[in-house]
Amino acid sequence: MHSEWIFDQIESLKIRKKINLLDFASGDGRNCIPLSKKNIIVTAIDKDQEKLNKYKSFKNINTICFDLETTEEWPLIKEYYDVIIVVNYLYRPKIKNLINLIKKNGFLFYETFSLGNEEYGSPMNPNFLLKDKELLDIFSQDLLPLSFYDGKLHHGKTAIKQTASFKKKASYK
Ligand SMILES: C[S@@+](CC[C@H](N)C(=O)[O-])C[C@H]1O[C@@H](n2cnc3c(N)ncnc32)[C@H](O)[C@@H]1O
């Protein structure tokens, strides 16, 4: 089942012409597969080729198998994506590199686990849990925050998560 929050954000854009969307750490494609049927050209990147194999030949989806946590430059095009989605993935050392990938007037929709989730299950490792307001602290200097939430989300099971949406202003330099 896809992320309802991500789908609500995409719906709110009222997409009428084709857009480019990056699904960052796309996993088994639960978000990008259904999105690719909505006037959306998807780039899906993940280090797990087996997962990508399930949808690599789908129309409107381009898959890239790549380890996003090495010193190698990401094989992604700068200022190319109208929308970037990140769900249930966090790697702090390179997280700000996402900003340059977004087109001006484009959007970043980020949803992942935050502190407090340990009570409900995995992940429990603080490397994978956002601190208070952390998504805002990371991105607000460069991107305009549109929404922020930190708390319980019920999605099959209860989790503690942050969701945050941002827009890259046309005036961004
Ligand atoms: C919890 S899954 C989330 C997948 C998808 N975003 C979703 O919500 O269904 C995390 C994903 O991150 C990917 N991943 C973890 N470390 C990675 C890395 N170093 N480089 C690229 N992908 C990575 C995993 O292969 C996995 O598919």
Report a brief summary of the structure.
By secondary structure, the chain is α/β, with parallel strands linked by helices.
Set down the secondary structure blueprint:
Elements: H1 4-12, E1 19-24, H2 32-35, E2 40-46, H3 49-53, E3 61-65, E4 81-87, H4 98-101, E5 102-113, H5 134-139, E6 144-155, E7 157-167
Parallel strand pairs: 1-2, 1-4, 2-3, 4-5
Antiparallel strand pairs: 5-7, 6-7
The site of S-adenosylmethionine has 15 residues, from loops.
Descriptive report:
This protein is of the alpha/beta class. The chain has a single domain, classed as Vaccinia Virus protein VP39 (Rossmann fold). The chain has five helices and seven strands. The chain has helices at 4-12, 32-35, 49-53, 98-101, 134-139, and strands at residues 19-24, 40-46, 61-65, 81-87, 102-113, 144-155, 157-167. A seven-stranded mixed sheet has the order 3-2-1-4-5-7-6. β2, α3 and β3 (61-65) form a beta-alpha-beta unit. The N and C termini lie far apart (37 Å). The site of S-adenosylmethionine (SAM) has 15 residues, from loops.
For this entry, give a set of tags.
7-stranded mixed beta sheet, 173 residues, binds S-adenosylmethionine, alpha/beta, globular, Rossmann fold
Q: How is the biggest beta sheet arranged?
A: 7 strands, mixed
CATH architecture: 3-Layer(aba) Sandwich
Q: Please give the radius of gyration in angstroms.
A: 15 Å
Bound molecules: S-adenosylmethionine
Strand/helix succession: HEHEHEEHEHEE
User: How far is the N terminus from the C terminus?
Assistant: 37 Å
Percent of sequence in beta strands:
25-35%
